[in-house]
Structures
1.
Amino acid sequence: MKDEKLEGILYYLLEKVNKVSRRYSQKVFDEQGWDITKDQWLVLKKIADNHRISQVELARALFKDTAAITRIINLMVDKKLVKREFRPDDKRQVELLLTNKGQKMFDVMLPTVVEIRKKGVEGLSTIETEQLKSLLSRMIQNLE
Amino acid sequence: MKDEKLEGILYYLLEKVNKVSRRYSQKVFDEQGWDITKDQWLVLKKIADNHRISQVELARALFKDTAAITRIINLMVDKKLVKREFRPDDKRQVELLLTNKGQKMFDVMLPTVVEIRKKGVEGLSTIETEQLKSLLSRMIQNLE
DNA sequence: ATTTGATCATTGATATATCAATTATATGAA
DNA sequence: TTCATATAATTGATATATCAATGATCAAAT
């Protein structure tokens, strides 16, 4: 029963840290008047980093399923942050690029996102952060 | 840039561990033929532990918002796992109890859920698990 | 050349998350 | 007693997650 309690709390904290992290990010975005969600930011960033990327590559990189990606991209196309382009060498694929607006949004947001991320690990040493990553990775391996 | 990369990966892993954990649980539930989601299980368990609990208490305990709880409970009432009861001393509140079916489901599932939880922390010592909890708690404090 | 198997993006159905707003009820202050 | 404030549950709107299924396209096998 004691052991069960221990792991139960661990899974609770994993959910909670994700939720508070998401909430904190979104709050800052909203305060800045940025019309974008945290998940849309992750997509924006990955496209910015890669310049052009297909949806399935994006899904893999972000560990999201392609249905979710399709929906997120749809919203970002509507917001004129992203555009889809035909890909002649493989007609199954669509290529994603940032619009000028998207690129500007990325440039404007990046410094703030860096600060947001740091906020979460304030007071944790690099060693502790590495430890955390290592422990999480081991959990992922156990469950995949 | 190096620092940014480090934290970015950490947040990615936090999301990923939640997803693989949820997926693993749900896979086992489905294999057992249990018509219940992971979140519904968490609700079932909390009601079982408390015998009777209000929705707002449940929401707080599970760190979920009351809108989400209302929806989850609606589904569980439909599945005849949970019932709502009037509460004469405070007409704003509804009290949640398990049905017999719900109690049986809880009893049947508990040992398996215990195993599922252990699966995730296989190979982690108690000390490491405690460390993980402590690190997560510090992150939560930073972001709340 | 044809068939089989794999891949890509999308759609549908369902579940949950989140914020805002609403109505009813309870509590505290004046 | 009345009014102001707080609380509980629900609903609405929007976002994302997940699994299954689908149609189009590509690659490999026959």
2.
Amino acid sequence: MVSPKSIPQHKKLYEILRRHITEGIYKEGDLLPSENELCQLYGMTRPTVRQSLSTLANDGYIRKHQGKGSIVHSLPKDIGILSVAGTTSAVGNRNLKTRIIVRPVLIPWQEDFMFPLTDIERESGCIYMERLRLLDDVPIFYDISYIANINLPRITSRQFENRSLFQILRASYHIEVMGGEQRIKAIPATGKISSYLKLNEGQPVLHLERKLETNNPALFLYSSIFCNTAKYSIFGRF
Amino acid sequence: MVSPKSIPQHKKLYEILRRHITEGIYKEGDLLPSENELCQLYGMTRPTVRQSLSTLANDGYIRKHQGKGSIVHSLPKDIGILSVAGTTSAVGNRNLKTRIIVRPVLIPWQEDFMFPLTDIERESGCIYMERLRLLDDVPIFYDISYIANINLPRITSRQFENRSLFQILRASYHIEVMGGEQRIKAIPATGKISSYLKLNEGQPVLHLERKLETNNPALFLYSSIFCNTAKYSIFGRF
DNA sequence: TATTTTTACTTGTAAATACAAGTTATTTTA
DNA sequence: TAAAATAACTTGTATTTACAAGTAAAAATA
């Protein structure tokens, strides 16, 4: 298993501040303590503090302004790495439910997979699952996930109801998503997709094909996501 | 006007390396010179070099590996900030054309604009233009742009054919895009959209509403983009 | 020869220091 | 009072130094 080792100071401060922002201790528009104040507070030097703030800025949690300070720029609540923004009103995180359609099973990779695979991935087999995610009991995401079976013992027997796949991977296997790539297109709803998302055949559906990189350089998370964007938009920052 | 001032060293090196990567001097998978070599080559200290590399990594041009080095991870050719990835084969940049549908004109902002506007933006008026972007003579993007008329003299009389809006803003006004946010949805093609993109009514179209931040904190670039994703996907990295 | 160990090189983390440059509030001056 | 200058903040840039940790090739060893 992965040992905790010693976590660098700049990462510790990053996690502290990120938690303070996401938990609302610092609210949107608030000014963070100045770099020198953070130095004193947490007993670090300015380069170390600046590295934490730099990461926070890159991740979109704050904006830095020379002469002013660091201003909190909190992101909308996200679902995994995706975010939804209501077209009419803001969406809380409360009414989000996850329904499992196909429990995690170990299967061989399909020949014509949407992304090229390494030999190691092919040999390891594919953990496959299908989920439906609902907002206010309206199906929004139909999500097909594919993960190479590399160092993920007992994953097929874990509870995925109302828990993010990312949360489980992070908590149980110390796997963190580092970045990734995706292809986006608009397609007409057909068969399974239209029935799961409760749309008429031919209605437009957003289709995302994504490959996520993790802190394990051999392990990628793949997913094919179909979104009903009639009521909600996908929201993104870059 | 914006004076050139003195550009920081880390930014200079960033630009040099970025150009070397995009121009193919360093190809995908190549190892960049080590940090110490770059220090010697460009007469900088390691923290300065590291800042350049850190920015390159954040922008997705390289990946850093402890003990190994920095590996080039070049992005696909982009169109503005958007990227396209062919579903069958890679797409070069050669066959890309831009057709102006509505030349830049100064108009008042519409009341129900897709993003909230500041008073300064409203008072400044809106530079409006419509463009169609074609790949191999097939219309892919129908692009409506809105820019607040803040310090952009003579912009309505510039040449936009086959030049990116971003290129012009960067070259003529020293405006650089820092980041932004977007909403994505799938909608059915209607009227003008279906005719410009040569699609049947009701066929799925990708709709992006984006707000881009610039190095001028008062200036944002807004655009509403309709994409024909029947043949090509929108490609993104994060 | 094959394995292990060592060495050299890579990036990562961290400190202490200095000055530049932008912002804001205060103070001074007209 | 109102404008201008100043001072006291803020973040930005940059150098120097040191050691930790990961990687890969070279050398030593079995």
